[in-house]
Protein 1
Amino acid sequence: MVSMKGIVRQILIFLVISCSLAGLAPAQVIAVRAGKLVDPDSGTVLSDQIILIRDTKIEKVGKGIDIPADATVVDLSRMTVLPGLIDCHTHLADGAHDGEPMGQFKKTAAQVALESVPNARAMLESGFTTVRDVGAYRALGDVALRDAIARGDIIGPRMFVAGAYVTISGGAGAATGLAPDIGLPWDLRYGEANSPWEVRKVVRQLAHDGVDHIKVLSSGAVLTHGSNPHSQEFTPEELQAAVDEASHFGLRVAAHAHSPEGIKNAIRAGVASVEHASMIDAEGIALARERGTYLDMDIYDEECIQEGGRKGNVPKDFLEHDAQLGQIQRDNFRKAVAAGVKMAFGTDAGVCAYGTSGKQFAFMVKYGMTSMQAIQAATSSAADLLGHSNEFGSIKPGKYADMIAVSGDPIADIRLLENVKFVMKDGKIYKQ
Ligand SMILES: [Zn+2]
């Protein structure tokens, strides 16, 4: 005979165990009804899908799934649901949108950090649930921003950060334009390195300071004073040192490069991605394909540089660096896509206003991608480049509940991604 007291005790034990397993709070269950669902893994669009979300993760996806009685139903049956978008080239921690890097010398690090708060929010609300941030003028501001978002103190995308630019003195990632006798604070000269051993030292310091990847500058830049995008900066030995040292900490390397030699040096050194890749030549395209190196080509921001130039907001030397480079980059993007090189979506967010990254999709389609390829570049391929395909990049069981929705068919009209109507990150709705 089981006594009433015994049953009550067993129920109590069961409750204690289940509560402690669930971290005391009952799990939040959401069922999203998706009229259409874009699956970048298979390159297909599914219809009438139910996405079951438990807390931060996706539990089930499919047609005719039973919706638990305690689930909150989110009805997107008239919309197209996509995985949360990923921008692999952002600079969210540089403060207010500004075409002139000299502006950094007029602000404290605290000002820059607080000005960056709305950048993160704009990025998330425009549909980008994850970003790979590839360098901040004031070192480690991006680490602080990433951690503040992860704690839930401020609203923004999941961030992966570089901490600082690893650059030659006076190079593309250096704070330039000041007289030689003006000393810079530590965080404006953190990433300068001028030999393979100095590169290793900076990489070690960055790894210790908690970065997610390393950003090196392999050629000159468009948006740096005294820089020449046609030049080569780090030597092959220095680039190899960066990739090797980063690998000791499990970190991947992204290389900024415009010039053909700067691009090829970086690919040969084994970087995970080449940023900009503006003047990539046939040999560079073949090398990238052979080595599986991602290209992250920011082919929209030319519009913003030229527009800023017309308004007098972009320094004259930057416009000179940029002359013809925009069109060359777009033509080379088309060649790289045709050659089957791995492509990731990266906009250099901060050059154009934060929250406008979605405008690049239409240009990627204009220059040779299908709509699905452009979406894959910003979802499954981007997650692969980041090394986190098992956590995000598509709407699959076990992954974070990161998703967006647009009204209409983005395969037929890619520009719908410029106007995202619904945003969920980690199972939490930020826009509806
Ligand atoms: Zn950049």
Protein 2
Amino acid sequence: MALINAVTTAESPAETLGPLLASFNFKVDVPLTSDEVEALATWARGLRPVFVEDDQERAIGLLNEVMVDVPMQPHISDHGLGPHLHYGRPGAGLVDRVRANTAVALAFVLCEYGGGRLGVCADAGCERVYADISRGPRRRYCSKTCLNRNTVAAYRARRSVPQGEGPA
Ligand SMILES: [Zn+2]
Ligand SMILES: [Zn+2]
């Protein structure tokens, strides 16, 4: 989600993508090349409809479609982080590693939690997506910031109506 949000909402994805991917433990040579940035942006835009789609079966179909072109070869790797699973081919470039790992992560959420847990923020002015893997009621906002802003707005709207003041 962070990748999708970075390329669809950030002002300068070129500068933000490298550190972002590094923060998810991807091995990244910064700065990214413009080809890498473009390929990652294309990939993220291709994944976004999976979050937008409300129908679970269609969301699964969309994800299966984008995964067709991703070279996958699951293997265990240990580059100083302890043994963990990589989904792309050994020695794959950054773009293919990101594509393989994000596709599988999204597939995992879809299978384990259902498409209802993937969505686009309900805030009118926000286009960020989220994957909600918490227990408890389904969330509708990308962040506490958006949730709080809308909770306050709804509270004010409720209070202002009976007093006949109209919206502030
Ligand atoms: Zn790794
Ligand atoms: Zn939001």
